[in-house]
User: What shape does this take?
Amino acid sequence: MSIRKNQIKSKIGKPPGSLIFVGEKNIDKTVLTLTEYDEESYDSRVIKSFKELESLHINNKSRKIRWLNVNGLQNVELISKIGTLLGIHSLNVEDVLNSYHHPKADFFDNGIFIVMKNFEMKEDKRLSDEQVSFFLGENFLVSFQHNPEVDTFNPIYERIENGKNVFRKSKADYLLYVLLDFILDNYFLVVEELGEQIDDAQGVLLKNPTTEDLMRIQTLKKYIQKIRQAASPLRDILNSLLRRDSALINEETIIYLRDTLDHQIHIFENLETLRDSLTTMLDIYLSSINNKMNEVMKVLTIIATIFIPLTFIVGIYGMNFKHMPELDWKFGYPIVMAIMIAIAVSLVWYFKKKKWL
Amino acid sequence: MSIRKNQIKSKIGKPPGSLIFVGEKNIDKTVLTLTEYDEESYDSRVIKSFKELESLHINNKSRKIRWLNVNGLQNVELISKIGTLLGIHSLNVEDVLNSYHHPKADFFDNGIFIVMKNFEMKEDKRLSDEQVSFFLGENFLVSFQHNPEVDTFNPIYERIENGKNVFRKSKADYLLYVLLDFILDNYFLVVEELGEQIDDAQGVLLKNPTTEDLMRIQTLKKYIQKIRQAASPLRDILNSLLRRDSALINEETIIYLRDTLDHQIHIFENLETLRDSLTTMLDIYLSSINNKMNEVMKVLTIIATIFIPLTFIVGIYGMNFKHMPELDWKFGYPIVMAIMIAIAVSLVWYFKKKKWL
Amino acid sequence: MSIRKNQIKSKIGKPPGSLIFVGEKNIDKTVLTLTEYDEESYDSRVIKSFKELESLHINNKSRKIRWLNVNGLQNVELISKIGTLLGIHSLNVEDVLNSYHHPKADFFDNGIFIVMKNFEMKEDKRLSDEQVSFFLGENFLVSFQHNPEVDTFNPIYERIENGKNVFRKSKADYLLYVLLDFILDNYFLVVEELGEQIDDAQGVLLKNPTTEDLMRIQTLKKYIQKIRQAASPLRDILNSLLRRDSALINEETIIYLRDTLDHQIHIFENLETLRDSLTTMLDIYLSSINNKMNEVMKVLTIIATIFIPLTFIVGIYGMNFKHMPELDWKFGYPIVMAIMIAIAVSLVWYFKKKKWL
Amino acid sequence: MSIRKNQIKSKIGKPPGSLIFVGEKNIDKTVLTLTEYDEESYDSRVIKSFKELESLHINNKSRKIRWLNVNGLQNVELISKIGTLLGIHSLNVEDVLNSYHHPKADFFDNGIFIVMKNFEMKEDKRLSDEQVSFFLGENFLVSFQHNPEVDTFNPIYERIENGKNVFRKSKADYLLYVLLDFILDNYFLVVEELGEQIDDAQGVLLKNPTTEDLMRIQTLKKYIQKIRQAASPLRDILNSLLRRDSALINEETIIYLRDTLDHQIHIFENLETLRDSLTTMLDIYLSSINNKMNEVMKVLTIIATIFIPLTFIVGIYGMNFKHMPELDWKFGYPIVMAIMIAIAVSLVWYFKKKKWL
Amino acid sequence: MSIRKNQIKSKIGKPPGSLIFVGEKNIDKTVLTLTEYDEESYDSRVIKSFKELESLHINNKSRKIRWLNVNGLQNVELISKIGTLLGIHSLNVEDVLNSYHHPKADFFDNGIFIVMKNFEMKEDKRLSDEQVSFFLGENFLVSFQHNPEVDTFNPIYERIENGKNVFRKSKADYLLYVLLDFILDNYFLVVEELGEQIDDAQGVLLKNPTTEDLMRIQTLKKYIQKIRQAASPLRDILNSLLRRDSALINEETIIYLRDTLDHQIHIFENLETLRDSLTTMLDIYLSSINNKMNEVMKVLTIIATIFIPLTFIVGIYGMNFKHMPELDWKFGYPIVMAIMIAIAVSLVWYFKKKKWL
Assistant: This one.
C-alpha cells in the first residue's frame, strides 16, 4: 500500500502524460509478440527490437490483420515509443502504465482505446487482478499486459490458427471482441469460485468460527466489490461500442458484442446475489450466536437457581451454634432433606412451565 | 457446483457459438412435438426423426400455425441442426444449450428469440428452475425445454384444441403470448408458496429455532433473489415486444402482452414484500432472543444476589474457631436467622424497585 | 392464503379474459345503483334487473351524467354481461373480478379503465383493503366494488345532490376525480391511524414487550408496504390522466387532478417517515435491551466477585482438620473477619474505579 | 395527533376548495400588513379591515411594489375573501389553510403560488414548523403565515427600507426571492443546531444512556426526515422558477435564485451527513455495550472459575464423616492448602494464556 | 461549531452579495502573487498594493497568460475590490468568502467561476479542508485560497517554468485544468491515507478496542462522507466544462479534462469501497464480540454446573445433625466421593455431547 502511495505522490504536480509506471514493479522484461493472419495464412512471432517493430509499419493499413501483444510494462521508454509509433495519445499511454486505472473506452479518429481488468483466483484463495489495455486501429490491434511470465492469451492464438471459417475472415474488431469475451469468461470463473468460497465460509460460520474466519467474509466482500467496480464500466464500454458508429466496429461484430453484454449482465447479477448472501450470512450468524448463548445461559441459570438456595440451607445446619434445637431433633435430617427435595422439584416444575426445560 | 465450474472452464477460449451443453446432464432423450392448427383444424404429433422435420419446411410460410416443442437438449448435434434448419442464429443456439443464461429477447428480421426461466416449487420445498427458450418466426414458433420427462405445456395443447374462437384465429405471436403468460402464472404460484413458507419460518423462529431453521431463511432469501433476477428482465422483454414494430407482433396481441406486463409488475411487488418481511423477521428474531436472554439473566441474578451473601453468613458460623463468642450466645442462632431474613427481604424490595420482579 | 393459491392455480392455463372471481367469496348479492344528474336534476335509484339496465342505453351519449355503481362481484355472469353492454374490454372485466390486481389505468378510444385499492383500518387494528374499479365513458361512469353490505360512496351521493354550482355543471371526468380524491382521503386517514399505532408500539417496546408486541411491528411494516404498493402506481395513473389528451379528461378537471397528485405525494412521504421510524425503533429497542442486560450482569458480577472469595475463606476455617493452628489462636476469628472486610472493601473500591458502581 | 385526524376526517367527502382550517387552532387574530415601496419611497402599515384592503385594488398594476402579509389564518371567511379579491384559485386558498400541505409551486397566468415550511429550533429542543404560502402577482406579493404573535419577516422590512440600490429598484419577484432565501437561511440554522444536538447525544451515548437518551436519537432522526421532506421539493420549486418563462420572473432575478438553489443543495447534503452519523452512532453504541458486557462477563467468569472449585474442596474437609483419614494427617491442612494454591495458579495461568487477564 | 452558527446567524436577512467572511478567522494577511507567462518568457512576483494591481489591467486581453493567486481572504474590502476590478459577480465574491460553500461552477459571458475543496490529511490524522475558488477569464485566471502561510500551488509554478513545450504554449484554460487535476491528485492521496487508517482501525478492533477506537470509525466515516460530498459535484463541474461551448475552453483541453473526469470516477469508487469496508467491519466486530462472550459464558457455565451441585453434596455432610446415619458408616466418605466423581464425569460427558468442550 505504501509503495502505491509513494507512486501517487510522485505523480502529483507532474504534467499530464508524464510517463511513470504505477504498479508493483517486479519484472523487468518486455515481450512483444506479433501475430499476423488473414484467410489464408497465420503467423505468430516474437519481435526482438523496437527497430524491427518500426520497420513493420503496423498502422499502415495492410491486407493482413496484425495483433501486437506487449507484455511487461516496466520499460517506460519503450512503451512510450511504441505508443508514439502507433498513434496512441500520450494520456492513454499514461493510462496503460498506471495499473490502478478505472476501466474505460476512449474513441479517436484513428482508433479505440480500452482499459480493463482481468481477474484470476490464485491457489491460495487470493484474488489477483491484472490491467489489460487495448488499442484498436484500422486492421491492427495492440494489447498491453503487465506480466511477461504468464501468457494469458495462449488459447486465443490457437483459436486464430484454427478459426479459418469465421475468425480469420473477420476484421480486427472481431479480435477485440474475442479478447473482451475471453476476459469476461475469466470473470465468470472467478465469480463461480467466489460462490464456492462463500459456501465454504458459511459452513465454517455454523461451526466454531475464529476471528480469522470472520475476516475472511470481509475479504470476500472486498473481492466482490472489486470485481463489481471492474465489471460495472464494461457495460458502458460495450454499449459505446454497440452504439457508436466508429468505422472500426463492423456490423457483423455487433451481434457478438451484444452477446458479451449479456454475459456482463449475468456476471453482475451473480455478484449481486453473492453480496446479498454475505450480508444475510452475517445477520444469521449473529442470531445463531445469540441463540446459542441463550441456551448456555439457561443451563447455568437452572443449575444455579436450584442449587444455590439448597446450599444455603445445608449451610445453615453446618453452623456451630450451641443452641440450635433442630440439630437435636430425631428426624431433623430427613425433614431438611425432604424440604430441599420439595424446593428442587417445584423449581424444576417452574422451569418446565417457563419452557426452559 | 463443481460440474458447473468445469463446464464454464471448458467454454473459455472457445469461439462464440461453440455448441456445448451447459447444465445438469441427466436425461439423454429429445422429444420433438409438432402442433399444427388453424381455425378449422388442430393436430399434435411427435416427430420421430430429423429427416421428417426437414421435410416439413416449417419456416416456409404456411397457412397453418406450426408449433415445434423441442424437449431435451443433451443431443447437441440435433439441436444445432434444428437451429440451422429454422434460421436461428448460432449464438442463440448456444444460449438455448447454456441452461444458466440470463433471460433476454433478441430481435431479427426473420424472428424473435426469447430465453426465460420457468420455476416450480418441489414437494421437498426446493425451488427448481428450468430454462425455456422460444423462437418466433413467421407463422411458426419453436420452444426448447430441458426435461423430456415432464410435459410442462400440456394445458396449452388443450387450450389450442378448445380455443376455436380466439386462439385458433390468432397468429403465432398469440401462441407466444400464451406461453409467456403461462410461465408467469407459475411465478405467481411459486411466489404464493414462498409466502406460505415464510409464514411457517416465522412461526418456527418464535419458538425454538435450530441453526437449520435460520439457514432456511437464507435459502428463502436466495430463492426470492433468484426469481427476482429471472422476473426482472421480463419487464424489458415485454416492453420490447410492446414497443418494437417487429412485423411478427400483431396489433391485437399488444393488449394481451400489456396484461402480462401487469402480472410481471405484480409478481415483482410481491417479491419485494417477501424480501422485506424476511429482513424484518431476522431483526425481530434477534431482538426477541436478546429479550429472552435478559429475562433469564434477571432470574439468575436475583437468585444469586439473594443467596450468595446469605451462604457467606452461614459459612462464618460454620467456622471451627475455638474463640467465637457468638456461637455460645443463647439467641445467636435466631439472631443470625433474623438478620438473614432482613437481608433477603431488603434485596427483594430492591429488585421490586428496579422492576426486575 | 390457501384459498387464494387455489384460485390462482385454477386460472393457470385458462385463456385470457376467462372470467373467474378471485377473492374472498362471502357475499352473493349484487346491488346496481344508478345515479343520474345534470345542472337541474338529480336522481339515484337501484336497478332491479339486467333487463332494466339494458334498456337504459347508458353508453348512448345522453345529456345527463350517469353513474352506475356495481356493488358485489360474485355474480360473474352478470358482471360479464354488464362489461359487454358498456363496451369494457374482456381483459378489464377479468381485472375487475380479480381482487388482487395491481392498480393501473388503461386508455381506450371509448373510455378509461382504472383499478385501485381502498383501505380501511378496522376496529381490531386490522387493515382491510377493497379493490375498486372504474370505467369512464363519454358522459357515464361505472364503478365496481366488492362488498354490497357497505356503501362506501354514500358521502358522494350527498355531494352530487348539494353540488349545484360546480359538481352538477361538470362532466363525468369530474365525478371520476371526486371518487379518486375520496379514496385518497381514506389513505390519509389510514396513514394517520398507522402513525398512532406506531407511537403506541413504541411505548410498549420501552416497557416489557412480548413476542407478540414484536410481531406487531412486523405487521405494521407489512401494512405500510401494502399501502405503498397501492399508492405508488397512483402517481403514474394520475400523471397519465394529466398528460394524455384523452378527450374524456377536460381542461377544467386538470387542476383538480393535480391537487390529487399532491395528496398522493404527501401520503407517500408520510409512509416513508413511518417506515423509517419502525426501523430505527427496532435498532433502539435492541440497544436498550442489551443496555439493560449489561446493568443486570454488573449487579451479578459485583455480588459474586465480592462474596465468592469470602465464602471460600470461611469454608477454609470450616474444615475439620485436626491440626489447624489458626483455629486455636485467640484472635483467629477477629483476624479472619478483618481480612475479609479488607478484601470486600478493596473490591468495592475496584468496582468504583471501574465505574461499575 | 387526534385533532389532526378529526380535521382530516371532516374534510373527507367535502368538495375540493372547501375552505376548512387544518392546523392547531390557538390564535384567533389576523394581522394584515401592507408594505409599499419603489425607488423613492417606502411605507409599511397595518390594514384594519377588508373594506380598506378592497379599496386598494392591489392587483391593479401599480407603479409601486405592494406586499401584503397575512398573519393568522383562523378567520377562514376573511382569508377566502382575500383569495377571491386577489385572484387566487380556490384550491390554493384551501392549501393555504391546510397547514400540513406538501411544499409546491403552481403556475398560473395571473401569478405563481408557492407553499413551503419554515423551521425553528425552540429553546426546549423541539423543532417547530410553520407553513408559509406566497402568491406572486404582477407588482404585488401576498404572503400567508400562521402565527400573528410572531413577526418572522421583521428583518425583511428593514432590508427593504435600507435597500435603495438594489432591492427597491427590483420587481416583486426579487421580494419573493428574498423571502425564499430568508427561509432557507433558517433551515441552515436549524441544521447546524441539529448537528450540535447530535454531537451532544453522542457524548451521552458513550457514558451511561437512559432509554430517554435513546429515544432522543429517534426524535432527531424524525426531525432530519421532516426537514428533508420540506427541503426536497424546494429543488423542484426553484428549478421551475429558473426554467419557466413565466413573465413574472425577471432575467435579473435568475442568478439570485440559482444561488438559493445552491443553498438548498448544501442543506440537503448536511442532512444526509447527519442522518448517516445517527445510524453509525447506534451501531457503534450497540458494539460498545456488548464490548463492555464482555468485560463484565470475563471478570465474573474468572472469579467464579477460580473460587467455585476451591470452595468445593474446602467443603469436602468440612464434612463430618467419622472415617476421613486425611483429617487426622499431621500435614493434611498444609497439603490441601498447597493443592488449592496450585489449582488457583494454574487457572490464572490458563486465563493469561487465553488473554482474559 | 458555535462560531460557524453565529456567522450563519449574522448573514440571515442580509442582502445577497453581502460580503462577510465565513470561516475560521486566524490569519490576517493577504498575499497576491502574479504569474505571467507565454512561450518565451515566465515571471512570477508578489503584488504589493491594490494600486499596483489596478494598473496592470489584467482583464484587458494581453498576449501573455496571467495568473493572479489571492491567498488570505480576511480582508473583505480588498477581496471585494479585486472582484469588481476583474468583473466577478458580487454573488461569486460572496461564495469566495464563505468557506463552507458547496462546490459548483457558474458560467458567464466574461468568465467561468468555480468553487471546490482541497483536502489534506494532517500528521495527527485530522482531515483538513480548504476552499479554493477560481475565476477563468480571457487569458487570465484568478485563484483564491484561505491560508497565506502555506503555498499549496508551489509545484505548479515549477511546472509552468519548465513546461515550455505544452504548458506555456497553451491558453489559460490549460492552467485551470492543471490546477483542478492537481487538487484531485490530493484527493487520491487522502483516500489512500484513509484506506491505511481503516486497515489500522481493523487491526485494533480485532484486539481489545476502547470506546475511542470505535469513535475513530465514526470519524473515518465522516471523513469519507465529507470527501464524497466535495468530490461528487466535481463530476457535474467537469461535465459542464466538457459539454459547454464556452469560448474559454479550447478543443485541445477537452481531452485533458476528460482524463480528470476519469480520476474523479476512480476516487469515487475507492470511497465507495472504503465506506462498505467500514460498515462490514462494524458488523463483523459485533459478531466477534458476541462470539467471544459465548466462549466466556460456556466456561463459566461448565465450571458452575459441575461444582455447584457437588458443593451442595459436601454441604449436606457438613451439617451438624445429631442423627445422620451416613456419617457413621465406615465407607461413607469414599462412597460420597465416588458418587461425586460419577456426577462430575457424566456432566463432562454431557458437555462433550453438546459440543461445549
